[in-house]
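ARCHIVE CARD
CATEGORY: sequence design from structure
SOURCE FIELD: tokenized fold
FIELD CONTENT:
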């Protein structure tokens, strides 16, 4: 089958997780503050603004350092990190996730051009499917390969993404799809490294959890601001035309 296949990460290109991560950060600090007050410890918590917090996350400032800049020390940093890991994928916090601006338009362009979108994510499939259903995006996805561990997306190790992409590629080839023009779109170094390791072109989008300057160091095939711009580039490069209705 000759349809072009795009492998795409979920968090970052499609789902905007910035509000959830910031809410998790604030709830983690509030939990520490309550604990410190109960133990009569003098801890002055400083809440970073969302802009400050997200800039640090995009530039890979360690969470431990972010906690320190937020007024925490020693055991309270450890407690904060453990609490964040526990609650980041809680159902109520997942509801903070939204659709990236123009991501829907980009996915619709790919659909019009007959491009198959296969999600390769470190999120559990049930979380992804719930999001797609809530935001009426199930039509955009041809297949999905996720992880069983709810914390995997937060740690986002490149080795896990390479394994998932390898599994997705192997399964698509068994189904008879031609992957000679396949792309990997993502917002982290793990996505770029996975595509490079498996010999497919990579598109790094800068609307997610990594900055443009950070991603540029991994030498993706293309560096684009959004999924929409990545889809436009794909259309131009492959000379695809939207189907006439």
């Amino acid at each position: 089958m000759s349809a072009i296949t795009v492998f795409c990460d979920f968090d970052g290109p499609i789902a905007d997780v910035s509000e959830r991560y910031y809410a998790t950060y604030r709830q983690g600090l509030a939990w520490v503050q309550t604990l410190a007050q109960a133990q009569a410890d003098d801890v002055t918590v400083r809440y970073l603004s969302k802009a400050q917090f997200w800039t640090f996350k995009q530039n890979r400032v360690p969470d431990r350092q972010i906690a320190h800049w937020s007024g925490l020390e020693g055991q309270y940093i450890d407690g904060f990190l453990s609490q964040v890991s526990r609650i980041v994928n809680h159902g109520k916090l997942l509801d903070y996730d939204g659709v990236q601006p123009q991501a829907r338009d980009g996915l619709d362009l790919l659909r019009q051009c007959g491009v198959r979108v296969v999600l390769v994510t470190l999120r559990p499939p049930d979380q992804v499917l719930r999001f797609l259903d809530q935001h009426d995006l199930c039509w955009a996805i041809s297949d999905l390969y996720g992880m069983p561990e709810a914390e995997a997306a937060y740690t986002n190790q490149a080795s896990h993404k390479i394994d998932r992409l390898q599994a997705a590629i192997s399964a698509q080839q068994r189904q008879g799809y031609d992957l000679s023009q396949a792309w990997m779109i993502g917002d982290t170094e793990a996505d770029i490294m996975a595509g490079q390791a498996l010999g497919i072109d990579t598109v790094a989008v800068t609307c997610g959890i990594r900055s443009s300057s950070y991603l540029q160091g991994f030498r993706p095939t293309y560096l684009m601001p959004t999924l929409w711009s990545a889809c436009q580039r794909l259309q131009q490069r492959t000379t695809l035309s939207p189907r006439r209705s």
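CARD ANNOTATION: The chain has a mean pLDDT of 92. The longest strand covers residues 116-120.
SHELF: design records, drawer C
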